[in-house]
Amino acid sequence: MEIIKNKNISFVPASHENPQDPGCLKKVLFKRDDLDAGRIQMINWSVLIKNKSFEKHYHEDMEEVFIILSNEATIIIEDEKEILKKGDAVFVPIKQIHQMINETNIDTEYLAIGIALGDHGKTINV
C-alpha cells in the first residue's frame, strides 16, 4: 500500500503550461512507474487558477478524465463547451483538442486522470 499525503506534495505548473506564468498547477499523485502494469499514465490533483485557463492541447495516445472537486470550470473539447460543477466528470478522447477555463474569482480544484493507449501520452500544444 502507498498512501499519498496531500500536504507533503507541492503544486507545479502542468506540463502544457508556461512555467513562468502558468494558468494551471498540479500535484502529481501517481506516475506511470508508480502503478502496476496497466495503462494509467498519471493521476494529478490540479488547481485551475482563478480567472485563468490551461493551454489548448491534445494527447497523441492518451485519454483523460477530469473530475471537478471544488468550484466550477468551463471545458471546451473541440467545438463543444460545457460548464462543469463540483462533482462533475468529463472524458476527453485521444487527439481531441481541449481547454479548461476558470471564469470565477476563486481557484478550481480537479483530478486529472490520464489513460495512455501508447507509450507516453505525448502532449501537443496548439
Question: What's the structural blueprint in terms of helices and strands?
Answer:
Elements: E1 12-13, E2 24-31, E3 40-48, E4 57-59, E5 62-68, E6 72-77, E7 80-85, E8 89-92, E9 98-101, E10 108-116, E11 123-125
Antiparallel strand pairs: 1-2, 2-3, 3-10, 4-11, 5-8, 5-10, 6-7, 6-9
Describe this structure in words.
- It contains no helices and eleven strands.
- The protein is mostly beta strands and 126 residues long.
- The strands form three sheets. A six-stranded antiparallel β-sheet has the order 1-2-3-10-5-8, with no helix packed on it. A three-stranded antiparallel β-sheet has the order 7-6-9, with no helix packed on it. A two-stranded antiparallel sheet has the order 4-11.
- Strand 2 and strand 3 form a beta hairpin.
- It starts with 11 loop residues before the first strand and ends with a strand.
- The mean pLDDT is 88.
Structural class per helix/strand content?
A: mainly beta
* Radius of gyration from CA coordinates: 14 Å
Largest sheet properties: 6 strands, antiparallel
**Percent helix range:** under 10%
> Total number of β-strand segments?
11
Mean pLDDT: 88
Ends distance: 39 Å
Distinctive features:
single chain, mainly beta, six-stranded antiparallel β-sheet
Brief characterization of the structure:
0% of the residues lie in helices and 48% in strands. With 126 residues, it is mainly beta.
